[in-house]
Specification:
47% of the residues lie in helices and 14% in strands. It is built from 7 helices and 4 strands. The longest helix is centred in the C-terminal third of the chain and has 18 residues.
């Protein structure tokens, strides 16, 4: 944003207001700043947004192993829904290691994502798997689930997340 400020000749505050659709700057300034942002492929810093309490539109999916069919199908359906709803997906694999699972979950306590989907064969409520202000959705899927069951589970899990992420 600082670079856009220097390029445009406007203050960082004015650039921020223009990019965030605030009405207290002129339409000409907003249009000019947005055109520069587009021209120079400006992308907002999601971590900075998270620090200000603004949604990052990012979710994390934590799965044991992406190469197993039932997990990859779950990831597929979650990502499909996420993209429709305007979210990006960040993937973590635990390789069936419980310590790695805890490490992944704890690393997501920094506010960089809006929600975590923890996928496993047998989801269990565990008080050690809590995030400060981020919804944690645990979903169970196994190799016996049909594609339709996995799709429905993904959909209901995402709906639950959206209700919790208000």
């Amino acid at each position: 944003m600082k670079e856009l400020s220097e390029l445009s000749g406007y203050s960082v505050s004015t650039v921020s207001k223009a990019l965030n659709g605030k009405q207290d700057i002129s339409p000409d300034a907003t249009e000019y700043i947005k055109s520069l942002a587009k021209k120079f492929n400006y992308v907002p810093n999601k971590f900075a947004l998270a620090l200000r309490g603004i949604k990052t539109k990012s979710i994390a999916v934590v799965i044991p192993e992406v190469t197993l069919n039932h997990y990859s199908k779950m990831l597929y359906h979650l990502q499909e829904i996420a993209e429709i709803k305007g979210y990006r997906v960040i993937l973590f694999q635990t390789f069936h290691n419980e310590k790695k699972q805890y490490k992944c979950i704890n690393s997501l306590n920094d506010g960089s994502i809006d929600g975590v989907f923890l996928i496993s064969d047998t989801p269990k409520e565990n008080s050690n798997l809590r995030l400060k202000n981020t919804p944690l959705i645990q979903l169970g899927v196994n190799r016996f689930n049909t594609d339709n069951e996995i799709k429905e589970l993904s959909s209901s899990g995402f709906s639950k997340f959206l209700k919790l992420d208000c």
